[in-house]
Amino acid sequence: MLRECLYQRPSPISTNSRKIKEETKSARVRIECKDKNNLNLKYFVNGETDSTGTFNIHIDGDHQDQICYVKLLTSPLADCKTADPGRASSQVILTRSNGAVLNIHFANALGFFKNRPLTFCPELLKKYLPQNEIKFI
């Protein structure tokens, strides 16, 4: 079982009670596992997020000798279709041979960019970024 949350731009935090993430229902994701020696695709399974932006995917078998990733496929939201390049995929370890005792594995957050920044994003960036990094605001 793999669990993950999907977020929208820029990160899952809130400021002054303004929410800057949205749960994305029906976003499609895929787990891919490739042979670690030749990178040939050995296994894949698709999934979809629920109303909380979370997906739970049952993984068949142990993938000890494979490199596995969860990656974004599509967003159902017209104004939020571009995957954040830094959050478009996440490596996951899908084996029990590494000492894991549970069959539940977690991936890092994934997300899509909204087409337009939220109105308070410039204010938020000014608060958290160093002055020399906010020239574009």
UniProtKB/TrEMBL annotation:
Q: Which Pfam families match?
A: Pollen_Ole_e_1 (PF01190)
Q: Which domain of life is it from?
A: Eukaryota
InterPro entries, A to Z: Pollen_Ole_e1_allergen
Its keywords, alphabetically, are: Disulfide bond
| Sequence similarity | Belongs to the Ole e I family.
**Under which name does UniProt file this protein?**
Pollen Ole e 1 allergen and extensin family protein
